[in-house]
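W.,

You were right to be curious about this one. When I first looked at the sequence I had no strong expectations either way, so I just let the prediction run and decided to look at it fresh. Below is the sequence, 296 residues in total, followed by the output.
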Amino acid sequence: MIKNAIIYRISANLPDLPALEEGLQKAAFQPCRPSQEKSEGWVPPRGEAHGALVESVGGQWMLRFHTEIKLLPTSVVQKRVQEKCDAIERESGRKPSKWEQRDLKEEARLDLLPQAFTKESRTWVWIDPQASTLVVDTSSQAQADAAVTSLVECLPPGFALALLNMQTSPQAAMAQWLLEQEAPEGFYIDQECELKASGDSGAVVRYGRHPLDIEEVRQHIEQGKLPTKLALTFDGRVSFVLTDGLRLRSIQLQDVARDDDGAESGFDADVAIITGELARLLPALTVALGGDSAAV
């Protein structure tokens, strides 16, 4: 269900469940109109028509943010603009100016939007009210920003959150773990890593399905290459890739049967399993990185 994590700390005024539902209804998803290029909003997490926009399972709140974008390839737009320019030249004997071509480009987009293909994406948002944590299931900061901005705008004034920030940077911590060949308590270093040199060279070394407890890795770090990604396993139950930007990617539960399609029959079980594991992992990762800087 949750495969990536961009993590936020809720710093003020998290509403209760009914108030959250009421706020989300103000930004419920509506499909793109014929001339609309993009639409965003909240949809029922269970996938039910007219269902609730926030679901509570074991005290954990799940939301789902939906984005619809109409795809207009540049070549198609340019072709329509050229057709319009050719028509003007035939009728008036002159070529359209650059300013006219700019307007023609906008006209062409409006002409083509009703026939454009659409691309849809749905993003899980998990709120742990007890831990004052919000997680967006995406590896894209832009997508996380869109979901978080929508959430802030549709809730009462005063609700505030910020990206989780640690006392020790993930990059410094990962470098230390690799140098010492010892992960923090509860964690295990897996066989995937990316090291990148600073400065102008930007040299990158990647290891995949390869033991990292070798002298070569230590030499790279001692020579100035720093980790940007490191695969870890927590408590033998959750594997993930930690990035230097404090993102979790490729989250997988070990030896746990899951239903990823969001069907009602498996929704509660899926939410309980993934949030239960991540609710243990995130505090342990916070400790491993020196603690939340906002709490100091």
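Here's what jumped out at me. The first helix runs from residue 17 to 25. And, maybe more interesting for your project: The chain has a mean pLDDT of 92.

Coffee later to discuss?

I.
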